[in-house]
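[Help] Beginner question about ligand-bound structures

Sorry if this is basic. My supervisor gave me a protein sequence and a SMILES string for magnesium ion and asked me to "get the holo structure". I don't really know what that means in practice or what format the answer should be in. Inputs are pasted below exactly as I got them.
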Amino acid sequence: MDIALDLGTSRFRVGVLGSDNMCSEPSTVAYDQSGRQLVGDQAEQLIGRAPQGMTAIHPILSGVVKDFEAAVALIRYAFSQALQGRMPRRPNVTVSIPTGITAVEKRAVEEAVREAGGKQVQLFESVIAAAIGAGLPFDSPHGALILNLGAGVTEAAVISLGGIVDCRKISMGGRNLDEAIVESVRKEHAFLIGLKTAEALKCSCGEDSSAVLTVRGRNLATGLPDTLEVSRALIESQVASYCESVVGLLVSALESSPPELVGDFMDSGIVITGGGSRLHGLLSRLRQKTDMPIVVADDADTCVIRGLLSAVPQRESRIAALRLRGRARSSDRPRSAGATGGSATGGSATGGSATLQRFASRIRRTLEE
Ligand SMILES: Nc1ncnc2c1ncn2[C@@H]1O[C@H](COP(=O)(O)OP(=O)(O)OP(=O)(O)O)[C@@H](O)[C@H]1O
Ligand SMILES: [Mg+2]
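Answer (accepted):
No worries, everyone starts somewhere. Holo just means with the ligand present. The predicted complex, written as structure tokens, is below.
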């Protein structure tokens, strides 16, 4: 039984290959002093309200393991949720990772997955998985531009022939915007709100048209619990500044794209995936700034896991077909696009023309055979 795992900063998503069963819970782990552990939804309920002696942590940040022990607990829990108590043997696991993480960081992800019970671990670039999940023709010579907006990482990737032509990343996302909202309310009003309140304020932009929003938190002047009316303009200014960073990232990806591929984007549009795609006002700002057709993928939050679930069987069948023909050479064994190998020495996450040519010749060879 093989498992696909998207270890997001805010949520993990996990599924078993060949089954429709996919689940998602917050990437949160909580411990009390006696070592009792809560994971997922139960741990998330404690964020900002953990009883004394209990700490709730997010072990994954921007695809990187921040707390190894908690990450192992999270992954073990993800396996148990996906397998619903059946753990017949150590499963092979495909995990999505952002582009540009270091070899040491990749090794930490692999180690955590093995420690949690995984057997073989395959890393797969999340932008490629997102493109597959969004239904983009990622392995055709037609170029596509995908913008994946997560909680801890924002990536803009140009893909063609199943490989990454160029990828730009900023290690910030919706979680950083929540932190910026907490900070601006603290500075402006000497009032402390929690991250979950800040996230709710962010998500309510566009839904609620009132000029002020009422929040609960701590009045820092008195030290006591209080309510506060926050102006919508304060929240919107933080949202606008985050949107500017995303616009900058997209513009730089467009500027560096080969001209033929830019023509392709103009035909098929730029596709946005990830939870951040729902941020109010982002789409109109991106369209206005780039004058390009931009669309949000269906079910944008789950594109990465759906892409992983459909890419892995495709890769297996391609390898099996080539092996049957006895032509698979051990030095250049075809892998699914985006897979960075089962070890930390796997291919570079960001490609260039070399990656493009490698994938082009590999696909041509496969077709010829
Ligand atoms: N309606 C909304 N408006 C604004 N932001 C939203 C909305 N809904 C979800 N988000 C944000 O989307 C982010 C979560 O997106 P996603 O699930 O793609 O991230 P992730 O996969 O956990 O993180 P990453 O891939 O960066 O490690 C959170 O910051 C969340 O607040
Ligand atoms: Mg993600």
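A couple of things worth pointing out: The first strand starts at residue 2 and ends at 7. The CA atoms of residues 92 and 120 lie 5 Å apart. Feel free to follow up in the thread.
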